[in-house]
Amino acid sequence: MSRVAALALACALPVALLCPAAAEPVRSEAPLATVDPTADATLRPALQIASLTPSEDPAAEMAPLVNAVQPALDARYAMRPKLVAKVSLERQEMTVMVDGEVAHTWKVSTAGKGYKTPKGVWTPYRMHTMWYSRKYDNAPMPHSIFFTGGYAIHATPHVKRLGRPASHGCVRLHPDHAKVLFKLAKEFGRDNMRVVVEN
């Protein structure tokens, strides 16, 4: 018998003859449940598109939702700091934001080799029009804004070094810029200011 004829014969035989196990009925512990699609509303479309009509006043329908959400948005906005001094270690630059808008962009000097400027987000904890470093030979630190530990933003006379790492860890600013930032910090209050140091 050729292969073609054998294949045709096999296709014609009942499955029970070729594989007796396949002919045995499947036994189950519990009877199979039958599902009636019409009995479960979740299996049917929840809405009938033909019955939908456009809203006559969408603004009025949305008003309750807006009224419920707006107080939360107002509270979140009120918690947002009014003044942010964001320092980029990579760019050696400070971006000053007032009420969410960029107000100033200045060159800075952060930690030089062998020192570090910590990264993070802080609320300043004290300010001094003039401070002298207790750690570094009473070095003057005009318009100091201390944000963590002994680290501060302050003015420096070494303006030619601004734009590259040069400090012992503090964030140095041009004296004019440090004065402006100090004035803003006093105007808004320390609690409404954040210092952000990032890569």
Your description of this structure?
The protein has 199 residues and is of the alpha+beta class. The protein has a domain at 83-198: L,D-transpeptidase catalytic domain-like (Beta Barrel). Helix content is 27%, strand content 26%. The protein has 5 helices and 9 strands; from the N terminus they run H-H-H-H-E-E-E-E-E-E-E-E-H-E. It has helices at 3-12, 15-18, 20-23, 58-79, 175-188; strands at 83-88, 93-98, 101-107, 120-122, 126-132, 140-148, 151-155, 171-173, 193-198. The strands form 2 sheets. Strands 3-2-1-9-4 form a 5-stranded mixed β-sheet, with helices on one face. Strand 2 and strand 3 form a beta hairpin. The longest helix is centred in the middle third of the chain and has 22 residues, at 58-79. The chain starts with a helix and ends with a strand.
Sheet with the most strands, sense and barrel status:
5 strands, mixed
Oligomer: single chain
Uncertain regions spanning at least 5 consecutive residues: 15-23
- Give the strand order of the largest sheet, numbering strands 1, 2, ... along the chain: 3-2-1-9-4
User: Which structural class fits the helix and strand makeup?
Assistant: alpha+beta
Key attributes of the depicted protein:
single chain; 199 residues; L,D-transpeptidase catalytic domain-like; five-stranded mixed sheet; 27% helix; elongated
Short description:
With 199 residues, the chain is an alpha+beta fold.
